[in-house]
Amino acid sequence: ETTNEVSYTVTAQAGESQLLPGKKTKTWGYNADLLGRTLIFRDGQHIHVTLKNQLPELTTFHWHGLNVSGPIIDGGCHAPVYPDKSSDIDFTLHQQAATTWLHAHPCPSTAEQVWHGLAAMVIVKDDHEDSLPLPHNYGVDDIPMVLQDRRFHEDNQWDYRADYDPDGVQGPTAMINGTINPYFDVTTQKIRLRLLDGANRREWRLHLSDDLPFTQIAGDGSLLPEPVEMTHLMITCAERAEVIIDFGKYKPGDKVVLYSDDVPLVEFRIHDYNPDTTELPEHLLDINPPAVDPTTPIRHIVMSGMDESVALDGKKFNMQRIDATQPMGQAQYWDVTNTNTMDGGMVHPFHVHGTQFLIISRNGKAPYPNEHGYKDTVGVNPGETVRLLVRFDLPGVYMYHCHIIEHEDGGMMAQIESY
Ligand code: C2O
Ligand code: CU
Ligand code: CU
Hints:
The protein is mostly beta strands and 419 residues long.
């Protein structure tokens, strides 16, 4: 069917951006000076992408959260595109509606390239999600929100090497969708934010002014089974959360601020809007966990260390080594442990390529209410073991790693083959 085929060209390129008054900042982006326009894909679509590299160094194009066959289409370390070269990928997407993203993934310079700006949101749509009474008007009431932080040096430039920290580079200035001190004009009673933690190491502790409650409807890889109302939300590196904010108690001229801890991220400026009385559906998505064959052993994965000593199962990443295998279509429990201790130990956000998993438990207890949907990244706290239910539906080699990007580049990564 030709109507179901789409083609894109995504060019990784260097540019400059007016982020602060004065000198422009040297930045990288996808078809853009910094970050990139959101790509919108649909379940069932046949997608062709030409990947072009106009940067002075090699890069890769990783589809974080897409169920695509690895490792070339998936775009991890195995799929370099050299400067002034291009490559072509094709895939048919079979996946539920979700907020995913594209980012550079050349090992070991993923962190530096993402810091320069090689990240963009990728939204997956499907018929089920379209049919629900949710905000769907992209840019009006359905808003991408890429959360990052940067440090500006002399002449407003970033200096990744100067800021380097093996536990993850961070900066004191919040950058939202590649903008410093952004605001958003609210023209509808309800908006949907698609939040993405696109930072190298920072986790965001989100809340609104007046402690205005909001409702989470989706996580990384799908809608939640039901909406979860909250006033505080934490997301860690690479995680996504879709939330609905109802501004019904505000009037034109009012302002609502989204904070992380006490740092203001975005100001919502309320304008005239039509009253919206639609209720959120009580039920959003049926989740049918795949059955696990009782003879299938539990896979144990250990994330250990901090700074240069980080390791996965006691080892550093080696692209020539396949660390594990799992038959295609077979569901398996993965017990992922963070051996850091509570005092001062870091949360390691654990990510698996090419699949969406379910979170079964945290230290034997039920997962948080907002993690009952499909996910591809989970914050594993110090001293914690998180049980995941993982299945690969496509063949290939897939990386799994800590998504503090400097930990990943530091070797806290392994790969599994599904066959
Ligand atoms: Cu966000 Cu290995 O990826
Ligand atoms: Cu990924
Ligand atoms: Cu880590």
